[in-house]
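dumping this here before i forget
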Amino acid sequence: MSDHSVLPADAALKIRAIQSLLAEKGFLSQEVTDTIVDYFETKVGPRNGAQVVAKAWRDPEFKARLLANGRDAVNELGFSGFEGATLHVLENTASVHNVVVCTLCSCYPWPVLGLPPIWFKSTPYRSRVVIDPRGVLAEFGTDIPANKEIRVWDSNAEIRYFVLPEPPVGCEGLNETELAARVTRDSMIGTRLL
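structure:
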């Protein structure tokens, strides 16, 4: 499990072949495909989560609402959907680092993170991060100090988790747009730091 972000080399070809076959059989038109792609590229996804994080870093009242009721706070920004029906936000601090997994399948908060990455759904990640979170995080290049507690949260069909990362050092003068540009999907899952 050394590279958690690389798709198999032939994945794009398989996707195109499936899309072509579905279009040929009349099950899926190019318009429908374009609509679906647009939805995941512009309506849901990590850029939404990054906006949530940036707002929480700049607005203490929003942050308090976010930590108290993630779903309602995220809805304030117009990000909603079934996958975010029950959303708990976990704050990373100087003493606690949170990481999210779904040990059963791939339950994931699509409205704020988009589609789950391939590694999130993989059996090695799902099984190992629970028993050796520090080791798995190290494989992502994320070294958590030994004196910092790591908490692993298991998403399921009823509850989804979203990590509020610690703000990066030196970002005090940045506005929300500049801050959002620094936030990554993996930091909102807890597998990477900023």
